[in-house]
Amino acid sequence: MAVVRRGDEMLASLGSDPSDGREFYRLLGGGVDFGETGEQALRREFREELGAELDDVRSLGVVENIFTWNAAPGHEVVLMFSARLRDAGLYDRDDLVVLDSGDPVGWVPLADVRSGRILLFPEGPHLEA
């Protein structure tokens, strides 16, 4: 997953838990395919999800995320990166969507995340990157 910043905002997709309707944002990225490095997977996922290329990809470390989704426990190990979108025009857009699902993608104010007004996953120190 990648932390992509626009000032004091982060790029994330909007979702909701089917069991209770709780809305949240999730950083963009996805699974690593066999034979890929984490960075290669991140670049592929951004091409698939947004049609976007990344620059200045930098590792931020690993986050272990234990969560509840659809009333069931979940556990994932997330490789976290910071990155910059190559297409500067994407920073001006507020109408992005995940290409294969149509899920809205937005710029989430970090002040709202810090205050608890907006849920952003995975949680962790990478949010200060």
From TrEMBL:
Transmembrane segments: none annotated. Keywords: Hydrolase. Its cofactor is Mg(2+). The keyword Hydrolase applies. Pfam families: NUDIX. Residues 1-129 form the Nudix hydrolase domain. It comes from the Bacteria. GO terms for molecular function: hydrolase activity. This is NUDIX hydrolase. It comes from Pseudonocardia ailaonensis.
